[in-house]
Write a structure and sequence with these properties.
Blueprint (H helix, E strand, L loop, with lengths): L18 H11 L4 H8 L3 H8 L10 H14 L5 H11 L15 H36 L4 E5 L5 E2 L4 E7 L4 E4 L2 E3 L6 E6 L4 E10 L5 E10 L3 H6 L12
Parallel strand pairs: 2-8
Antiparallel strand pairs: 1-3, 3-6, 4-5, 4-7, 7-8
Length: about 240
């Protein structure tokens, strides 16, 4: 009889770690720094930190760009991005709002006779809520300034040649101006320009303007210097070298 019964062991299911923790662990397992990932993705280090800390609300990108950020992070570590992207989509899905009505304490005959009227009332409520939600979203979208992210150059960047490459991203149907000159954007909101520099400190002002006049502005100060070898030829010691004894 002892062979008839099977013994079951109680196993504890391990809770799946959040996408941010998995990405961070993958980076640390490969002994890669935040600076390495940021340089590989050509994006600011602070967005990488926000991603690893699951501070998705602090990343000023639309959901599709946040998903691309997860994909780019995985690719920077040379790992398959699809499992991470799918987990991100699952965790970031908005909560579904379920409409329910309290039970109606009536006879079966009355319920059957009032069913068409109840369905019409429920349909009207759903339509009103949908219209109100859409109008609220559109108003919020109009009143909110556009997002603007500059991938390169970083603030305080020091260049040794001109021009430099400027790259950034904004929302769709937003006009980008660099130092007052309009710049074309792609369907995804990506824009790129070659910026001529003069010797010394250069101020680059990037503006993103919506059709309704809301503007977001980013400023970058870039310093153009002579190349280190040129400084040595004319007796100028680069600031990063060790003074001669």
């Amino acid at each position: 009889m002892s062979n008839v019964f099977m013994q079951f062991e109680k196993k504890e299911l391990q809770e799946t770690k959040r996408i941010c923790m998995r990405l961070k662990e993958a980076r640390e397992k490969r002994n890669k720094s935040l600076d390495f990932v940021a340089k590989k993705m050509k994006i600011s280090k602070k967005w990488i930190q926000a991603l690893e800390e699951c501070r998705f609300d602090d990343i000023p990108f639309a959901p599709i760009y946040k998903k691309n950020l997860v994909r780019g992070y995985a690719k920077a570590l040379s790992i398959n991005p699809e499992p991470y992207v799918k987990q991100f989509e699952h965790e970031e899905e908005p909560l579904q709002i379920t409409l329910s009505t309290p039970p109606i304490k009536t006879s079966r005959k009355n319920w059957n006779s009032n069913t068409p009227a109840l369905l019409r009332s429920l349909s009207i409520i759903v339509i009103i809520l949908a219209i109100a939600g859409y109008l609220g979203y559109e108003i919020q979208n109009i009143l909110r300034p556009p997002t603007l992210t500059i991938f390169t150059p970083q603030e305080g960047h020091i260049a040794y040649e001109s021009p430099i490459h400027l790259k950034g991203q904004t929302e769709k149907e937003v006009q980008i101006s660099i130092n007052g000159k309009e710049t074309k954007t792609s369907a995804e909101g990506i824009f790129e320009e070659e910026i001529d520099l003069r010797m010394g400190i250069n101020t680059i002002i990037i503006s993103a303007e919506k059709k309704h006049g809301k503007i977001t502005t980013e400023t970058r100060h870039v310093t153009l210097r002579t190349a280190p070898q040129d400084d040595a030829n004319i007796g100028i010691q680069p600031s990063t070298s060790t003074p001669k004894q």
